[in-house]
Design goal:
The protein is 27% helix and 15% strand. The protein contains 8 helices and 11 strands. It starts with a strand and ends with a helix.
């Protein structure tokens, strides 16, 4: 039978502008494929509530499996620029971490620390210091088995790998369970922390652009909708990621979506 694909326009007819139901739809040709008649088996969620999809657009392609949608934006290019754990002298984690396939969110944080002077050496020091704090026993630290964040976006827009395995799994489209969001759902999503305190202070353009890039790379690789970029405070009561940054999450979602569509 011919392979079927949903057009990009139809994704935004799904609840909340996401494709959360798309992978649950079972399309099968009925009778003569030449007549292009299809049976649509939908999940039970579609039969409840007033926000169910009203229209599904189907594009019948060739008999070949459709290739991944092309985009000028390349997640692998962004991932290749991330400073790996081996380059910032990361300590070995004290336990193994659960692997999460198909994470549903990206969780945005700030480190709530004074910004460094910037540069690659400072970026490495900042991340190493955060890991040391996260792994130190209570009450001087968090008592965690590794740094809690998946990625850190440091001054000057330098991206650094956080928790062990985060970069490798992100490239595969997966995540490593972190310790950054305060809930199971949040910790099963990649956590991106930007260096600085953004309660009132604005982020400069270099750091903002790198935040957009890492979020776009994660969305593309892990098939996460930009609308599912959330703030830490969306999961637990906290000031994180700072009021200034939290107020700009809609802008972040828009810029990520624009970059993926370019």
């Amino acid at each position: 039978m011919s392979w079927l694909k949903m057009t990009s326009e139809s994704l935004y007819l799904m609840k909340g502008g996401t494709n959360q139901y798309l992978d649950k739809v079972d399309l099968a040709v009925q009778g003569d494929p030449a007549n292009q008649e299809f049976n649509l088996d939908v999940p039970t969620q579609w039969l409840e509530g007033s926000d169910i999809p009203k229209v599904v657009v189907i594009d019948v392609g060739s008999t070949e499996k459709p290739s991944k949608a092309t985009s000028i934006f390349d997640a692998d290019d962004i991932f290749s620029k991330v400073v790996k754990r081996s380059n910032w002298n990361a300590s070995v984690p004290s336990s193994r971490f659960e692997l999460v396939d198909r994470p549903k969110f990206i969780v945005i944080h700030h480190t709530e620390t004074p910004p460094s002077s910037g540069g690659i050496d400072q970026a490495k020091t900042v991340v190493k210091d955060i890991q040391s704090f996260h792994m130190a026993p209570e009450p001087k630290g968090r008592g965690w088995s590794d740094i809690g964040y998946s990625f850190l976006n440091t001054v000057g827009g330098i991206l650094v790998e956080g928790r062990f395995g985060s970069l490798e799994e992100a490239i595969k489209g997966n995540a490593v369970r972190g310790a950054h969001a305060g809930t199971d759902a949040g910790n099963r999503a990649p956590g991106v922390a930007s260096e600085g305190n953004f309660s009132t202070k604005a982020m400069d353009s270099d750091q903002w652009n790198s935040l957009v890039n890492i979020c776009a790379a994660l969305c593309q690789s892990c098939n996460i909708e930009p609308s599912q970029i959330q703030g830490h405070r969306d999961f637990v009561p906290t000031d994180c990621p700072g009021q200034w940054l939290y107020d700009r999450l809609d802008r972040l979602r828009i810029e990520v979506a624009q970059k993926l569509a370019s």
